C-alpha cells in the first residue's frame, strides 16, 4: 500500500524561479502534492526572527538553521500545519508569519511554532539555490 | 442459536433440505420461538432498527457504487451526476447520506440503553465488547464514506483524521504515508478509501451475526435487570417482538424520511458542495455530528499525542465497562445514584458534541477541558465508586412480578428530554459555520420553501435570462445541460425552444478527421460552456479571485443560524440559508464604506460578504435586463429571479423530492398506525 512508481516519479525535484517575487511577498508552489511557501522576507521580518531567544521556543531552532546563508531573505517551508495538516495562511497571526485557521496555531516569520497546539516548526523541504534567483526543491 | 431445535417443516422439499442443513430450524429457534423477556420497552426495538439501517445502507450503497467514479478529478462530478441524471439518484444519495446519520443516532440510543440498564454486565461482557467493535467499524466506515464525494470537507476531514496517526512516535509518518498511498491526501487515498468503504459494511454484518449469536446465548437483558426464571416471564419472539419491532422501525422511518425528503442537507456541511481543493483550507473544519464529542476531546488536550490518545481511549474505555462497574444490580431503575449520574453523563456527551462544532478558542477550550475530565471521571471514578457505596433499591423477584407492580410513567418525559437534547446536538453543526460576525442576510419568501414548495416558472425563466445576460460573462454553470431546461420541475421550456436556445451557443468539439478541434452550434445534450478555459485563466482575468461556478452555489453557501434557531429550523424545514445569502450578496453592494472597514484596491464593499471585501463589482443595476412579462426591472427582482434559478440548478429534482416525500409520509403514518394496533392486539394478553 506504499506509493506506487508513478506517484514516486511525480515527486521528482522541481525548479522555481524567484525573480518575480517582490520583497514582502510570497508564493505557493506544489511539490509532492504539498504546498510549499516561498517567502521573500522583509528586513523587519528577518530581524524579528533573529531577535527571539531560541531557547524559549517550543521547538528550539535558530533562524540561521532554517534558511540558506547568503540568501537570508528567502524562507522556504512546507505549508502544512504540524498539528493536523491544515494549510496555514501567510501574513496572519501575531508573529508576522503564518496562522493556521483550523486549530489556531501561530508560526513566526521563520515558520517556527510560537503559539497553539502544533508540536513542531513548519518543516523546511530539501532545496538548494541553483542560481541567485532560482531554487530546486527536492 | 439457542440450542438444538425440534422444528420440523411439513413440506417434503423443506424436510429434505432441513435434514441436510438445519437452517430453517436455526431461523425458527432464533427468530420465532426464541423467548424474549415480556417487560421489554421500546428502547429495545433499536436492535431491529439498527439491523434495518445496516441493510438499507448496504443496499443503497451497492447501487450508488454502480454509478460512482472513485477518481480525484471525477468523484465530485460523478456524485452530482448521480443526483441529477440517475433514475431516483437523488433519493438513493439522500437515503445513504442521511442513513449514515440515522444509523449513528440509533446506535447511540442503543448504547445508552445498554449503559442505563446495565446490559454489559455478566454474562453479557462479550456481547457488549462485540458491540463496541461494531461501533468502531461503523466510525471507520462512516469517515471513509464521507471522503468519497470529494468536497472540501471530505478532503480536509480526511487530511485531519489521517494526520492523527502522525502523532504515533517513530512509526507515525510511515503509517500516514501508507494510508495516503502518496505524499499527501490524493487520488490513491480516495481509491483505497472507496475500496475499504465497500468492504467494511460486510465486516460489520459479520460482527453483527456474532453479536446476535452472543445475545441469543446470554439472553436479552430487560428493564428490570432480572433474568427470566419461568415461562411466565417470557413471550415468543414471533409475533410479540417482531410486531413491536415493526412498529418501532416504522416510527423510526418517519424521522428518517423527514431528513430524506425535507431536510437532506440539514446534517451536512455547505462546504462539501465545493469541490476538494488542496490549496485552500475551509475556515472551520468540522467532522460529521456523530464524531463531534470525540473531536472535542481531541482538541481540548493541548498536546498532540496526548490528544490523540485521549480521543481513542474515550472509545476503548467502553470495552472495560463490564469491569469498571462492579455493581450487582443491573438496571439503573433500581440504582438511585447511578440513574442521576447516567443523565449527567448524557448531558456531558451532548455538550461535548456542541463544543466539538465550535471554534477552538476562549471559553470553549476551557469548557471542553472540564467536560473531558467529566467524561473520563464517569467511567474511572463514578462507576467504580458507586458500585461500592450505593445502596440499590430492592429488585423484583421475577419479571412477571415487576409487570404486576408496574406504574409505567417517565418514559414519555425521558423521550422528550432525549429528542430536545438530540436536536440541540444535531443542530450544533449549523452554529459552526461562518461566524465572522457579518450581518445576517435577511430572510425572503421563496416559492420553493416548505414541504409543498414549487419553483415559480416565471422566476426560473427570468432568472435564466439574467444569468445568460449578466452572470454568464464570468461564472460557469457547468453541471447544467441545455436539455435540463425542458425537464419537469424546471423552467418548463419545450424541447424545440431548448434546441433553439442551445444552437445560439458555440460548443468546442473534436478532434475531427484532420485532427483539429472545431466549433459547432450547441445541442440539447451539451452543457453550458464555461466563460474561462480553466481556473487559472479565470483567476488571472479577475484580479486573483476566480468566479465560482454557479451550478451549486445556493447549496455551497450558508451562514450560521445560531442557537436556538437551528432547532426551530428542524421543525419548520427552513433550508434556505443559501438562497438568502446569494440574494443578499447580490443586493449588498454599497458605495459608502462604513467607518472602520478598509477595502483593498480592486475590491468592493459588500455588506453581506464574509469580510466585506468582494472582488466582484456590483453586477446588477436597475433596468439592465429587459423582462418580456412585465415584471419590474429592478435589482431586487433580478436578485430574486436569478437566485430562484440558481436554486433550481443546485437541485433540479427538488419538486419531485417534496412530492414523493408527501406520498411517503401518508403511507408511513398509515403503516405505523396499522402496526400499532396490530401490536396492541398481539400483546393484549401479555401485559
UniProtKB/TrEMBL annotation, chain A:
Pfam families: Rieske
Gene Ontology cellular-component annotations: plasma membrane
Chief place where the protein resides: membrane
CDD domains per record: Rieske_cytochrome_bc1
Superkingdom classification of source: Bacteria
Cofactor, free-text remark: Binds 1 [2Fe-2S] cluster per subunit.
Reaction catalysed by this enzyme: a quinol + 2 Fe(III)-[cytochrome c](out) = a quinone + 2 Fe(II)-[cytochrome c](out) + 2 H(+)(out)
EC number: 7.1.1.8
Domain Rieske: 49-136
Cofactor entry: [2Fe-2S] cluster
Subcellular location: Cell membrane
Signal peptide stretch: none
Protein name: Ubiquinol-cytochrome c reductase iron-sulfur subunit
Assembly with partners or alone: The main subunits of complex b-c1 are: cytochrome b, cytochrome c1 and the Rieske protein.
Further comment: The Rieske protein is a high potential 2Fe-2S protein.
Automatic annotation (TrEMBL), chain B:
Coiled-coil portions: none
Keywords tagged on the record: Electron transport, Heme, Iron, Membrane, Metal-binding, Respiratory chain, Transmembrane, Transmembrane helix, Transport
UniProt cofactor note: Binds 1 heme c group covalently per subunit. Binds 2 heme groups non-covalently.
A single BP term in Gene Ontology: respiratory electron transport chain
Entries under InterPro entries matching the protein: Cyt_b/b6_C, Cyt_b/b6_C_sf, Cyt_b/b6_N, Cyt_c-like_dom, Cyt_c-like_dom_sf, Cyt_c1, Cytb/b6-like_sf, Cytochrome_b_C_euk/bac
Membrane topology value: Multi-pass membrane protein
GO cellular component, one term: membrane
Co-factor requirement: heme c; heme b
Lineage top rank: taxon: Bacteria
Subcellular location field: Membrane
Binding site for heme c: 471, 474-475, 616
Protein name as annotated: Cytochrome b
Residue stretches spanning the membrane: 42-69, 90-111, 126-148, 160-183, 195-215, 246-263, 305-324, 336-357, 363-386, 407-429, 660-678
PANTHER family named among the record's database cross-references: CYTOCHROME B
